[in-house]
Amino acid sequence: MAAASEELTLPADRIVERRTQVAVSREPDTDGQLLGFGTIEGEPPAGELGMLFVDPPAIGTGVGGALFTHLTALALDLGFHRLTIAADPNAEPFYLARGAVRIGGVPSGVAPGRVLPLLAVAL
């Protein structure tokens, strides 16, 4: 469990370095609530969509798609031409529907023996 926590945690001192973008609620009863976040990592022209997480109650509401669109547009503005994504297997269809293609697999840093889909999206 400690390995998962470390792998899936974004330390406060790395938020800027990892070009973190957030989605927050603007609904009156939940204004300011964090709905999701994502990171762009590496240096142009090729980088990585390092993280893209959505709060479970917000899944299926368009938050993830909006974050993905925003992150890829920002990456393009920053000079990236391609992003790779080590995706959770359950998230692979989400990325494929947005133009990513599977280019291989990478070992999970959390679960020994588990292989994550490695995807790429051209910007």
UniProtKB/TrEMBL annotation:
CDD domains: NAT_SF (cd04301). Pfam families: Acetyltransf_10. GO terms for molecular function: acyltransferase activity, transferring groups other than amino-acyl groups. The keyword Ion transport does not apply. Its EC number is 2.3.1.-. Residues 1-121 form the N-acetyltransferase domain. PROSITE patterns: GNAT (PS51186). The keyword Acyltransferase applies. InterPro entries: Acyl_CoA_acyltransferase (IPR016181), GNAT_dom (IPR000182). Keywords: Acyltransferase, Transferase. This is GNAT family N-acetyltransferase. It comes from Actinospica acidithermotolerans.
